[in-house]
Write a structure and sequence with these properties.
By secondary structure, this protein is an alpha+beta fold. It has helices at 9-25, 29-36, 84-91, 97-102, 112-122, 124-136, and strands at 40-44, 49-55, 64-67, 78-82, 106-110. Strands 3-2-1-4-5 form a 5-stranded mixed sheet.
Length: 142
C-alpha cells in the first residue's frame, strides 16, 4: 500500500486547522489544553509550513489560538519539526511521539517534558480525527 500523502500544502493546512479546531472546541480537551498553556511551534519542512499554537488569552474565543507564520508575538516553550506524514500518523494514533523522537522522525527543542504532558490530554483526538479522515480524506488513512 502506498504511503498516505497530502495532495498539497493547502490540504495539509486545512486538515491541521480542522484538528486544532476539534481540540480547542472539545469540552474535555480544550479547557485542559488551555490550562496547560504550553506555547508550541511546529515546523513541517516537506510542505514548507510552520504553525505556532498557544492558549487563548483574555477576550479571544475558544481555548487555543494558532498562526501559520513565524511572525507571532509569543515565544514557544516547545519546538517540534516533523514531516506531514509523521503528523498524519500521530493524529491517527499510529505514531508514538517518544518513539518518533528517538528515531529522529520528530526533532525537538525546549520544554519537552511540558509537551509530553499534553499527550494524555490529546489522545481523544485520534479517534475523532480518524473518523474525519475516513469520511473526508480517505487517501490519508494509515
Amino acid at each position: 500500500m502506498a504511503t498516505p500523502e497530502f495532495r498539497s500544502p493547502e490540504e495539509f493546512r486545512t486538515v491541521m486547522d480542522r484538528i486544532f479546531t476539534m481540540m480547542s472546541e472539545d469540552a474535555e480537551m480544550g479547557p485542559k489544553l488551555h490550562a496547560a498553556d504550553v506555547p508550541q511551534r511546529f515546523a513541517f519542512p516537506d510542505v514548507d509550513l510552520v504553525v505556532h499554537i498557544r492558549a487563548t488569552r483574555g477576550g479571544e474565543p475558544g481555548n487555543l489560538t494558532w498562526v501559520w507564520s513565524d511572525d507571532v508575538e509569543w515565544e514557544p516553550s516547545v519546538r517540534m519539526e516533523m514531516s506531514s506524514e509523521t503528523a498524519n500518523r500521530y493524529f491517527q494514533g499510529k505514531e508514538s511521539i517518544a518513539l518518533a523522537i528517538a528515531r529522529r522522525r520528530i526533532k525537538t527543542s525546549g520544554d519537552l517534558k511540558a509537551a509530553l504532558a499534553l499527550i494524555p490530554i490529546t489522545k481523544p483526538i485520534y479517534e475523532a480525527f480518524t473518523a474525519v479522515v475516513a469520511a473526508e480524506f480517505p487517501h490519508l488513512r494509515v
